[in-house]
Amino acid sequence: MLVITRKPGEGFLIGDDITVRILEDNDGRIRVGIEAPKEKKIYREEVYERIRQENKHASQWQADDWRSLAQQLVKPPKKASSSGTD
């Protein structure tokens, strides 16, 4: 892990296209600004972990689980009843 000491107003670069800047230090709470291309996804750590866990759970579903879910969501069409009279 790289540890960098920065003061408010100072920043650092990650690669050629991401700038991280310290905006303010207020009683131990640091505000950080990140400039990055729109196609870069930036998540808070706890949000990313929740997404990762949900993806892991979804990938553990078996084919039978999907079939069962599909059967619950898609009901077969009702057959037309014939009265037997002409």
Keywords:
86 residues, alpha+beta, 3-stranded antiparallel sheet, 3 strands
Notes on the protein architecture:
This protein is α+β, with helices and mostly antiparallel strands and 86 residues long. Helices cover 30% and strands 23% of the residues. It has 2 domains: 39 residues, no CATH class; 31 residues, no CATH class. Strands 1-2-3 form a 3-stranded antiparallel beta sheet, with no helix packed on it. The chain is rod-shaped and about 85 Å long.
Strands, total number? 3
Shape estimate: rod-shaped
- The number of domains: 2
Largest sheet composition:
3 strands, antiparallel
GO biological process, one term: mRNA catabolic process
GO molecular function, one term: mRNA 5'-UTR binding
Keywords: Bacterial flagellum biogenesis, Cytoplasm, Repressor, RNA-binding, Translation regulation
Subunit structure: Homodimer; the beta-strands of each monomer intercalate to form a hydrophobic core, while the alpha-helices form wings that extend away from the core.
Short characterization:
30% of the residues lie in helices and 23% in strands.
Give the helices and strands, then pairings.
Elements: E1 11-14, E2 18-26, E3 29-35, H1 45-59, H2 63-73
Antiparallel strand pairs: 1-2, 2-3
